[in-house]
Amino acid sequence: MSLKIVTWNVNSIKMRLQHLLEFIESNDPDIICLQELKCETDKFPSDELSHLPYNLYIHGQKTYNGVAILSKIPADEIKNNFDKNPIPDQARFIECSFLTSIGYIRVISLYAPNGGEVGSDKFINKLKFYDAFTDYIQSAKSFEEQLFIGSDFNIAPYDIDVYNPAKLQDTTCFTYEEQKKLRTILNSGFVDNFRILHPTKNEFSWWDYRAGALEQNMGMRIDSIISTSNAVAHLVDCKIDYHTRTKDKPSDHAPVIAEYHNISQ
DNA sequence: ATGGTCGGAACCCGA
């Protein structure tokens, strides 16, 4: 039995509905974490997805933010926020639990703050958001469960995750201060599912709409699926779906796809 | 190259 989990910042679910339908048709994922819906919960295009076998768990918001988890398996526990979130009015978190072929799992779809200008109030809030989120996932970890986080982290953790580390040094999403936050998570029992399978790949998940960034491959790997280490034994594949980013009127982010196989205990 | 392009909202803000 196989389980496929996806994370994708769609940059408006209404604008990206057709790409989402095509992506599902091509990849048939079991669980889809979406970010930047830019859509209120009750305005989510549920009817347009009703022919598909997904349960929809939406934490929407008008204009900005908004996250969702779409799952073939119904969730038995749903949370819309985490303890001590310094910006709880922004819809950046949803968590669901599922009984799957690889065991009991908990999945978070997270949209971390961009941070704006380095040193700004937004930037400070981004760091505080990470501190609270890190505390939360450390407390949520359990021996029995596997925890997966599909996220636009808005941080590229290492030099290999950007097109030009020297040029990007000290810019938002690539300051050492931000990297420390994500690396703290990755050094405390969480595994970057793409990086562990591809230690030397210089691939990206986001390219700016401006200045021909995609054509020059000026990108950053800021979207990832990370999991507790107890899930890594099941991990068989993790890739970035560049093709979706090359379509007409795309999101500025590419989906990340991870696949897990059941291993008998 | 302190630009550039999107999406959503109301002609600017966030990314």
From TrEMBL:
Keyword Magnesium in the entry? The reply is: yes
Q: Which InterPro entries match?
A: AP_endonuc_1, AP_endonuclease_F1_BS, Endo/exonu/phosph_ase_sf, Endo/exonuclease/phosphatase, ExoIII-like
Q: Does the keyword Disulfide bond apply?
A: no
Task: Output the PROSITE patterns linked to this UniProt entry.
Answer: AP_NUCLEASE_F1_1, AP_NUCLEASE_F1_4
> Which stretches make up the Endonuclease/exonuclease/phosphatase domain?
6-253
Alphabetical UniProt keywords: Hydrolase, Magnesium, Metal-binding
The record's section on CDD domains has:
ExoIII-like_AP-endo
Signal sequence span is: none
Q: Which family does it belong to?
A: Belongs to the DNA repair enzymes AP/ExoA family.
Q: Which PANTHER family match?
A: EXODEOXYRIBONUCLEASE III
Provide the protein name: Exodeoxyribonuclease III
| Species of origin | Candidatus Megaera venefica
- State the taxonomy lineage: Bacteria, Pseudomonadati, Pseudomonadota, Alphaproteobacteria, Rickettsiales
